[in-house]
Amino acid sequence: MERSEAYGFSAAISGAFLLSCLLFSALNREQRAPYMDEAFHVPQAQAYCEGLFQQWDPMITTLPGLYLMSVGVVKPAVWLFGWSGSVVCSTGMLRFINLLFSVGNFYLLYLLLCKIHHKNKTVSGFQRILSTLTLAMFPTLYFFTFLYYTDTGSVFFTLFAYLMCLYGNHKTSALLGFCGFMFRQTNIIWTIFCGGSVVAQKLSEAWKTELQKKKEERISAMKGSFSELIK
Known about the structure:
Layout: H1 3-30, H2 38-49, H3 65-81, H4 85-88, H5 91-116, H6 125-136, H7 139-142, H8 151-166, H9 170-183, H10 188-230
Helix pairs in contact: 1-5, 1-6, 2-3, 5-6, 5-8, 8-9, 8-10, 9-10
EC number: 2.4.1.256
Organism: Mauremys mutica (yellowpond turtle)
Membrane topology: Multi-pass membrane protein
């Protein structure tokens, strides 16, 4: 990454986070109580915060990944700062977890664009940053940044799994894919996609190796024929 691109990316992610914090603050002032499906998600997360892991709302159709992750994020605040469980597991604090996921999504999108287009010299650093902003602020995803829904965390683990897949860290990718599945069952499709990408890559490499082998055999045969003609 060039220095100018690094500065541009730092400015973009900082600006996006600042804007998100302002919108987050405004929404929480206007809507302190759980909104829409938060009426199911928030009480379930609060039950997990209290250690009631066997309690489950049958109206919830997703797996408990979001709630388990939330406990892992907010519980250290109880031990470090002495905050009460009612504070760290309040609706506002639980929503803030998705704000952190959104920053992670921004960074992962940028890394994915860099990895996918690293051989394309026509794509400038500015274009990568602008594309990252466009994807990270996509309305159907960005709206749920400010609510305690599974969307933002689900996208985070899916993007992370795909990035690890592209870098060849398949075990890490599988683990992250499982985390994404725990947020939303439909993410199994993206895990299969990552697996399919690996299979396609291996087949492509095997095909190229076979073609190269046949080419070398033809060259060897031609050299042999030429040697016979000289004799």
